Amino acid sequence: MTKDCGHHDEERQQLLRRIFAAILGFIILILLVIFLIWIILRPTKPRFILEDATVYAFNLSSTGDIPSPTTPTPNTLTLTMQVTLTALNPNSRIGIYYHNLHVYASYRGQQVSLATELPPTYQGHRDTTVWSPFLYGNAVPVSPYVLEVLEQDKTSGGVLVNVKVNGRVKWKVGTWVSGRYHIYANCPAYIRLAGDRDTGIGVAAPAVKFQLFQNCVVDV
Fold this sequence. Notes:
Helix content is 24%, strand content 49%. The protein is of the alpha+beta class. Strands 3, 4, 5, 6, 9, 10, 11, 12 and 14 form a nine-stranded antiparallel β-sheet that branches. Strands 1, 2, 7, 8 and 13 form a five-stranded antiparallel β-sheet that branches. The chain starts with a helix and ends with a strand. The chain crosses the membrane at residues 19-41.
């Protein structure tokens, strides 16, 4: 009886070892397949380029000259611009789906326009997509710090506006499509300013187009 129990225990241990070895081998196989796919495909995040920006309005309304401690009125910034964004898929074997992409303008970390949604897009291998969204910000309240920095930028003759893109991407290999990943792009745009110290800050002329060809910082 004792010998039978010992024999059964030994068989059970051998079975557990085989199950463990099978699970370990399966995990190693999966990791090897993932590694080989990565080596073969070499997935690379998309490139974004800010080609140009046409500025229709960039005007600061300052109320600093009219003190009103009881009902203070904030300084406001009005912005209207159209930008041309180019997205490049550098992968030769991977397609990219773009979902819920929103573009907006930011200055000194403060969003100064509404977010404009871009249409859902599929980008094939080594394909290029061009978007030309309008960005609007009507009388956006800005902090006193932004007002002070804008005055300094006015002295230097230009202002750095960041065009930002937020959204989701999916990768496509053959018939397989991945889950959604967050994508973020930050595109600097240098805009020349004009205006006298007494008349405020604004763009040099209506509908000024700035050729930029500026590479964006992209995170996925």
